[in-house]
């Protein structure tokens, strides 16, 4: 199935302790159905000191399930579902993501 949420998308959290927070998708793991969102679902981790990083307790993002986030509509910045449509004809035909809320193309 095509990816409805991709790296770089602006999303809003629909449920959980960070409900209502907005952020940018850092990475998506389709096999696990999870995504990392900047500034959302922050957890504390104990880090051992290394040559590159200082040791101590650091805060980092934990993954969040794709069902708990929604893409923000590019037109009015409200949560929307994602659909697909084909643009162009023949060999130039391209599949693009479309906002179900406003009908605006999300990419392309």
Q: In summary, what is this structure?
A:
By secondary structure, this protein is mostly beta strands. The chain is built from no helices and ten strands.
Write a structural description.
This protein has 108 residues and is mostly beta strands. Helices cover 0% and strands 44% of the residues. It has no helices and ten strands. The strands form three sheets. It has a six-stranded antiparallel β-sheet, with no helix packed on it. Strand 9 (82-87) and strand 10 (94-99) form a beta hairpin. The mean pLDDT is 93.
Secondary structure tally: strands: 10
Largest sheet descriptor: 6 strands, antiparallel
Overall spatial form: elongated
CATH topology: SH3 type barrels
- The CATH class name reads Mainly Beta
Number of helices: 0
CATH architecture: Roll
Cα end-to-end separation? 19 Å
- What share of the residues lie within helices? under 10%
Low-pLDDT residue spans: none
Question: Features of this protein?
Answer:
108 residues; mainly beta; SH3 type barrels; 6-stranded antiparallel beta sheet; 10 strands; 0% helix; 44% strand; elongated
